[in-house]
């Protein structure tokens, strides 16, 4: 079976192509337009230009566009207006570069690329740098290629990063649907210049201690003239951060303190400060600039990531920029952190990130105060694609092959007995490792708790839940069961999901073995998704594309995501955007304690990454 991703065409809107030609191919037309010999295709007049190159607001400015690029920026563009020129009167509104997301996994929005574009373009995001390591863990290079092809059909200035850690920590720690190494990385760079970087190198211990696979991927990237994105979670003052940087890693989003930002910038790296749905790191990290006075030119604002629900309710990069401004950043500086800084980090500032002659015509008009980041028009590749929060351009559907819609391969459907934790004694108590969730943070804590044993089974109660991972790629039957704290269920409940970073096996959490089995079965039968089951019923969010993304339009996906959040909240799990936080509990490269299909994984600066037993 094959399926077209659902899409909506607004009444009266025609299909369009969004072609971004190289600057070299556009020079004659741009120069002729700027002289006034060739009419501009579009002009914006009388605006307040947010000049991110100079850090100024310039009054009474106009912009002329030829095709997909900017031909002229100045006070007067009247000599470029012809019969076919579309004229937009800015009337004193701000004209700013389109916003760029410097680190995003589109799959984590639960949307396809097309629906992601529909969601974020009206919010002022016109491009980004996307690491498709979620689908790569399920389908390898084929998954990345599918998303790249879909990206190329949207108005976004979309750049792909090649997944570096598939699996994230190595096959000895987890089972994935595919693997990627140096040869695959090198192959991906032959697909086009929009394959721009090596995605976050999460196996930072492997880099530091000379793992040949990780170093080989970095070498393939550097030889191809691309850049390397990082993921370093040891403390900022750890002596191994400069070792990591010596490998050629020049950007990192795992910044949670001002010190993290300061040390990376001092080493010549770009510090990416994130405000995702459930990770609220900007407030602390931005103080590297606002309080410590560091030059912000190597600081980027990123999402990493925002669910479809939070895209609907809060926004995308517009929300992150607004939040940074609320933390004391000058508005123009905040815009730089989401435009030109990002473009410069990836070496594409000639094309995107500023409103300058020759650049791609990716612009937004903003009403009210600049600090409000109130986007009322989005122009991408020289085309008005959204006005007043509504898409005005139609986006063509993209067809996913049948195998991508059937990626859940359990050895068998689980039963309640599969979630029993057998103890090495008949009765008494055992010191047990417990994962503790920390709200609004990606890291977890390791607790050691004495838990009772009865009839040879570990008794998990008093607010604790069981957590399990079932291998779903190859039907191996691999399974592990552990204990987690901080979920908050106050009634019998369970959640199962095939979104379980990064290996994306079936992750199940609950306080009732039967409900855990039912939830896991529900997502398996749906060929991917999220299921919350309580005594009052089942809430299902199908994610059929690789078990990660919805086939539905943004509006429906957002509503289904919100329904999952409500079901969790009603059951007592009040974590902010709980699903996003819970989906990381199987991510085997982030401190401190995680779970995979092969057992508990602990990450520490002293010992690196290693499997540990449930019982101490």
From TrEMBL:
Keyword Magnesium: no
Domain called Amidohydrolase-related: residue spans: 94-384
Domain of life: Bacteria
EC number: 3.5.4.2
Keyword annotations: Hydrolase, Manganese
Catalytic activity as recorded in UniProt: adenine + H2O + H(+) = hypoxanthine + NH4(+)
SUPFAM superfamilies, sorted: Composite domain of metallo-dependent hydrolases, Metallo-dependent hydrolases
Adenine deaminase C-terminal domain: residues covered: 442-603
Cofactor(s) needed by this chain: Mn(2+)
PANTHER family, per the entry: ADENINE DEAMINASE, N-ACETYLGLUCOSAMINE-6-PHOSPHATE DEACETYLASE
Family membership: Belongs to the metallo-dependent hydrolases superfamily. Adenine deaminase family.
Listed name of the protein: Adenine deaminase
Originating organism: Paenibacillus jilunlii
Name of the gene encoding the protein in the UniProt record: ade
